[in-house]
Specification:
The protein is mainly beta. Among the domains are: 2-116, no CATH class; 129-168, no CATH class; 172-244, Herpes Virus-1, CATH 3.30.40; 283-359, no CATH class; 549-597, Wheat Germ Agglutinin (Isolectin 2), domain 1; 598-676. The strands form twelve sheets. Strands 45-44-43-42-46-47 form a six-stranded antiparallel sheet. The longest helix has 10 residues, at 227-236.
Amino acid sequence: MEMKHFSHEHNLHLHEEDGYSNKHFCNGCWQRISISGSYYRCNNHSCQYSLHKRCAEQPHQINYPLHKHPLTLLPQPPYRSHRCYCSSCYKSQWQHFTYHCPICKYDLDIECALRATRINHKSHNHPLIPLQKSSSFFCQACRKRDVHGPSYVCSDCQFWVHQKCADCFPSSVLYEHNNQSHHTLQLSYSFPSDFHRFLSFCEICLEILNKRDWVYYCSDCRYFVHSDCLLSLLDEMGKDGKPALSSTNNLVETIEDESIITHLPPIDEFINPLTLFINRISLDHENQSLLEHASHEHKLILVLELQESDNNTILVNEHMKDKQTCAGCCSIIMSPPFYKCVESQTSNNCPFHLHKHCAQLPEKLNRHPSHPDHPLVLSMELYGIIRCNNCKKLCLGFVFSCHNCRFYLDIACASLLFGSIMTHDLHQHSPMMIREFRESDGHRCSGCTFLLTGIGFACIACEYFKIDVECALLLRGFNHRFDEHPFVLSYSPVKGIEEYICEICEFDINPRQWFYCCGICDHSIHSECILPICDHPTVVFNQGNFISTPHHCHRLILEKSIDVGLSCDCCGKSFGEGLGGFECFECSFRIHRECADMPQEVKLQLDDHPLRLLSSNSSLKRTRVRVCILCGLELDLELWFYYCGICDQSAHLECVSKYQVVLIQSSRHGLRVIWRTIIIE
């Protein structure tokens, strides 16, 4: 870009900051060229005439607020000595650009004129005052606080930016993002108001975006980054505009055994993604048509998809009519092979089902990465509030546990933590590995944008793709009974759809979070909303808010609050205001949290035999009055109580909890005995 300036005989050419700017001075203000980013320089190589961009573009005439006449810009003072005193700052011997009033002989050096002159800049609604001296302030553009170089400041509000940032940030940048083709990112001098509905984050530094931040964004992808984060990243990247990768980015191509690579989400939408990981720790048994399993009292029969049936197998259709839940991983059984109780088709109608790979889980895991000092034993009958030490969620179904350390892993975490090499549709350039995250690290999931905590998956070649387990295990798609087309997992906004409303909960969907969409019907659903309604549930990983109890036939869900006045089916006491508990979706059964955690067996120090917890549904004969052996009062047999079948003795729950007792958690692998001291009131 060239210009003809009145102060010089040759044309001036626009340059960016370079080595020349550190050595030469501006002929307008006589400060180093390097204090500002862009400058004009004479095209004649023998001439060293230079001007800051701001000095070269100063208006020829201004109205100074402290003088009644207009001031005209001159290349030097109009006196014989070519020197003057500045009428504003009283600087003497000034001999460069001067604003002059011929009527009053009033002179103003260029620096004072710049300080008093207000300019209109596209980055702000108010006129800005150029400041040439360095100041300490927080720059709205680069978000840095330093004292380097001139700046623009607004006298009406708190807006303040470096002149270099305001004048040199490109209005658009071509950058590959979201693993898509190159889209142009546009510069916005504040976070666009069209996207204020949702909390947004910078895709590079992961910090929350404020409304006043300068951002580059792609409106089609809803992709936002801080302006300084993007420009700093581009400085580290090649000319292709792609992030630099470590030497591991070709790891997938060098692996000869494809079986150790897990592709997510599974290509077949009928495959439960969790099974891909559980299969890695399951024992490779032959198909046993009849199985005696430690988790169930009856024999189990194998269900297969076969062309012909035999005496010990069952044929099933391609689409099973009734969806059953696996007792091991507690996810819905989508397709064979699986085991079912042989009594399921008799008068007993036993509903027990078990995935084939869950039935083949080893009884013990030695030197597990998360607990290498002791073996983890497969426990099948642990009841109460037991949390997985990895995902911190309530355990449901089979659990790998170390009783000595009170360490628990649900089978999902136990299988995931063994690790394998994984690739994802959205990030195929390099593999992902299991990684443990802490909330304090500030990493966010690329799928749901929530802070990562516990285990997750991370790209081993770059720092920009990380997902939690729930997002990693989302299905590729599913069918909904009210839509003739399948819902497909979407990683970014769908072209042509401006607003997204969940068909289930009717709340807004943030299209920067992964969701399910039918592009034909413009229907969308939150990924977390599809579990109760889809034929093939997407959330096959333990949600962490369910428990099971041997005293009720259905699973119980954790509720933060239960209506005041409703009573607990265990102890009979009502739920107080704001108190939560566990509630059954399918019936009116509900219990307190502490009641759900009552031990199944206890041993009083005054009795040689353990007392077993019985519910109101127990088969114990109720023909006579029963008295608590601790307090001597009558028991309400409609509530839960402890009972010794050998001694025919009973005790209130509340009375047992007031005494020193031995808690016994029974399982088919032995008894777990824990002493607990209770303070007597």
